[in-house]
Amino acid sequence: MTALNYLLTEKCVIISMDTLTSRDCKTPLKYSTKIYPLLHLNSVLCGTGSHRLTINWFSYIQGEILARDIHIINELAENQLPVINGTDKFDSDIYHFGYD
Asked: What is the 3-state secondary structure (H, E, C) of the chain?
């Protein structure tokens, strides 16, 4: 289980997450980054659950999406995340924090 804490104000976002990644059977596997910067969008991406889906979504944003702000990412996520997930059906929650 991932610990995600955040504070969203008008001037900043403060985010903290654990770094433990688990196997499907919920036993510890390794430590990994779960907060990914999207500096060109003035935002960050966080993921809980399947680490693979979070990384794939981050890679997709970086390599495939031409966007100026976080609103575009939010609109595309609903349709694109199921496509990226494919038949694997990873169980994840994806969070976008940012300012326009």
From this structure: CCCEEEEECCCCEEEEECCEEECCCCCEEEECCCEEEEHHHCEEEEEEECHHHHHHHHHHHHHHCCCCCHHHHHHHHHHHHHHHHCCCCCCEEEEEEECC
